[in-house]
Design brief:
With 86 residues, the chain is mainly α. The protein folds into 2 domains: 37 residues, no CATH class; 37 residues. Helices cover 63% and strands 0% of the residues. The protein has 3 helices and no strands. The radius of gyration is 17 Å and the shape is flat.
Length: 86
């Protein structure tokens, strides 16, 4: 079995490489698992996924990226609200 690190796509650095790996692999599975848990517990909570334009973001810890993430979340929320109202 090969090393997981070598199988990841090339990125600028190791932190970005691992962050992109976790974002693509674990986040969607965590959402599915959480929804399944809610369904099994007969919860009345409804999970609403907000679409994010991840292509505009990176995972550098700076204010520019923070503000881009806030804006992407805000725009995704507006889209979801428009869909709900129509």
């Amino acid at each position: 079995m090969g090393c997981l690190y070598n199988s990841l796509p090339l990125e600028t650095n190791r932190i970005e490489k691992l962050t992109n790996f976790f974002k693509e692999i674990f986040v969607p599975d965590d959402i599915k698992l959480f929804k399944k848990h809610l369904a099994q517990s007969h919860s009345k909570i409804k999970v609403i996924e907000i679409p994010m334009k991840y292509e505009t973001l990176n995972y550098h810890w700076n204010y520019t990226n923070l503000f881009k993430g806030i804006d992407a979340g805000y725009q995704g929320t507006l889209e979801k609200v428009k869909d709900y109202l129509n």
